[in-house]
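Hi R.,

As promised on Friday, here is the backbone we talked about, encoded as structure tokens. Could you run it through your design pipeline when you get a chance and send me back a sequence?
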């Protein structure tokens, strides 16, 4: 009798079905996303109710008044607490507004943001917001925002009598720090004016090319070096002809492969120093005085004028 009541062993397809049921029983994340592509905002995923849909659409219109909205949200249960979820949606849309293209995705109340920032200021604002403080309960799962694209990618260093001015683009804050530290080492100037802005699109070996460019500029008394894409130009005044020639040679030797260089470097003419003048003028006077007197010290007589005069 007990043999009839015993459950049969779970084998084959029955075991597979049991495993599938366990997987299906696991809770599914409540997903919502907004994607910006050119002039369109695409909404995908779930929304707790029609009322919440209207609230979300109102947020989207507030942040993107000029963009078309493609709404494919579906009402579904299982959302986090209403106020918490709406707060997370609002925060995600605010970050998306800083992007030229990209997306904000919510998995429950975990946020992923990726894309290209509209401007350097937008990039800084978004990164600052994602670093916190965050809305209650929200966590950042992924932050992959890139600075705006610069094409061409331009870097300029301008050396004057008292200041080195850095302007144009830099690919990261670490790269900015390296450029500033190298500038401090190479240039004996009281002022360093950093006007660099973060941007994407730096060519390969950009850091090496900038290092070579700054080293070359540091050998000039004044001048400017510009790096636009793979093309470097330098102009300025060297202390002498030898330095001007050496700077041109150094650039052609040390720039990474594929980079080109164009130089327009003049140099200062050799000039007598005040000490030289103090030594030379008495000697010139002595020679002139000697040639203009007779052996006994009298002034030589004037030559009679020629008949033709």
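Update: got your reply. Pasting your designed sequence below so it's all in one thread:
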């Amino acid at each position: 009798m007990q043999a009839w009541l015993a459950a049969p062993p779970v084998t084959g397809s029955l075991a597979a079905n049991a495993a599938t049921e366990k997987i299906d029983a696991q809770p599914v994340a409540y997903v919502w996303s907004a994607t910006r592509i050119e002039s369109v905002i695409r909404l995908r995923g779930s929304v707790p109710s029609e009322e919440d849909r209207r609230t979300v659409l109102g947020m989207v219109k507030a942040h993107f008044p000029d963009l078309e909205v493609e709404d494919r949200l579906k009402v579904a249960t299982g959302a986090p607490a209403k106020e918490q979820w709406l707060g997370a949606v609002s925060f995600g849309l605010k970050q998306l507004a800083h992007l030229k293209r990209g997306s904000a995705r919510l998995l429950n109340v975990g946020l992923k943001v990726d894309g290209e920032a509209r401007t350097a200021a937008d990039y800084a604002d978004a990164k600052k917001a994602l670093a916190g403080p965050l809305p209650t309960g929200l966590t950042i799962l992924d932050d992959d925002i890139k600075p705006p694209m610069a094409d061409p990618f331009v870097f300029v260093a301008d050396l004057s009598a008292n200041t080195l001015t850095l302007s144009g683009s830099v690919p990261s804050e670490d790269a900015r720090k390296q450029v500033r530290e190298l500038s401090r080492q190479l240039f004996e100037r009281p002022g360093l004016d950093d006007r660099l802005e973060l941007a994407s699109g730096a060519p390969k070996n950009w850091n090496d090319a900038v290092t070579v460019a700054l080293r070359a500029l540091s050998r000039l008394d004044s001048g400017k070096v510009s790096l636009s894409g793979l093309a470097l130009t330098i102009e300025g005044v060297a202390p002498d002809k030898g330095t001007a020639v050496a700077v041109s040679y150094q650039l052609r030797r040390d720039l990474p492969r594929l980079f080109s260089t164009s130089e327009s470097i003049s140099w200062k003419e050799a000039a007598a120093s005040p000490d030289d003048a103090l030594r030379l003028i008495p000697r010139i006077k002595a020679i002139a005085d000697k040639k203009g007197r007779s052996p006994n010290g009298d002034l030589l007589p004037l030559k009679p004028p020629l008949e033709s005069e």
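One thing I noticed while checking it: Confidence is low (pLDDT under 50) at residues 1-16, 18-27, 302-309.

Thanks again,
M.
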